[in-house]
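Raw record, unedited: Cilia- and flagella-associated protein 45
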Amino acid sequence: MSRTNSARYRSTGGGGVDESLFGSGQPKQRFRKDQLPSNAICISKADYEKMRVRSVLKSAADEEADLQKLEAIRAEKEKISRARKAKMMALEDEAKRKAKKSASEEISEARAQAIRKQAQEKIDQQNDLVKLLNTYSQRAMAFTIRDQQMADKHRRDAMEGEYEKRMDIAMEIDRLKELSAREKQENAKLSKRISDRSVIIDQIEARKKNKILQEEAREQENKQMLQTIKKYEEEDAVAAKKREEDIAKSRIEVIKANKASIEAKKNNKLREKEEVDMILAYQAKQDAKMRAREEEEDERKRLVNERQKRMLDNQTKTQGKQAEIDELRARRAMEEGERRARQSELWKAHKRKEDQISLNNARKQQQAEKAASIAREAATKQDEYESAVKFAYDMAERERRERDAKDKKNEEFREILRDQIQKIEDGRMMHRNDKEEEGRMIKKEMAQERIKLFAIRDKMVSDMKKKGIDDKYLSEMMGIDIAKLQMR
């Protein structure tokens, strides 16, 4: 206002003081009351009063007192104006509330209210303190999730350890059962072998007894055969003696007949000669027959003796061979049983070996699966660690960016504040009351914002507690000095 007035008012004299205001020593020209000079300037009464007041020389104390008085008057006027404005707005709101609204107006108002609420929430979310609270809440949730993962991991490890322990106990029980079954089988096999051995021993003893009985029977049979042979020899001797006697008798008879014939036919030499020749021929024939018969008898005896000897030899061989065959059969049966037992043992040993191999393979597979599980778990841990590191790095990077943005914003805000402070300092004498009122409004707004931030923090803490977040991870949020951070 003063600059405008000073620009509109120009000096008419050559000195530093406007002579038109205080008069001059030069004679004045007479003008008509309704006539204005060509260089005249018209000002308002208020401007005239201001210029008149400013033209009065005052001390600094008087100026300060006048300024305070003016500021008090203006503050009172502004207070009355604000009260009137607040009253008018309250009356307007009351009239709006009392006024009957249509459905479309209610819908529009509800929509506008919802939009304002969402906009206010977005504005609140853009607040640095709310962002910091969100960061702390995300960190608390991340730590809680990590604790849950660690608890799940410990629980899985405990379950796996319990499972491994149960499997080891089950495998040990199976091994003991298998050992017990093998011991029972070995004992049964041993008892069976003992019983088989006793049976074989009994069979051998029975064979020995049968062999002794057979030998005794064979000896008796041999004795009987020898007796029969002796009887046959005696009969042959008697028959041979009888034949010799018959031959002797026949010879005697022949001699007697020859003698009778010689005596009867002495008279006829030719007849006698013929008779003698016939007798000699007959005797030679008889002798040949007797020799042939004796040779046949000798041959028959030799054949009988050979046959008897052969029969005895064959019988002895047959009996010895039968015993050897029986013994060989028993030995072969025993060897067959032992071979079958060895084959059974070999088969069982092979089966045990295959079972052991399969068990070892199963154990190796289990160990490989366990190693793979450990490797997967290690990879999972590594991934979790890398994810945590990446998350921490991202969080640090985001916090750094937010901090840089915040620092930049704070710097801009400080610049703005400096400008505002400079402006306020420049116009402090004229706007001191406005500054105090602005300070009160700022304090009030900051107090309201602080209350709202406390409510937001309490709501976030309550929601996170409902989600099961541990209180120890909420200490950062609860320990935030909102008033201190708000003053940054």
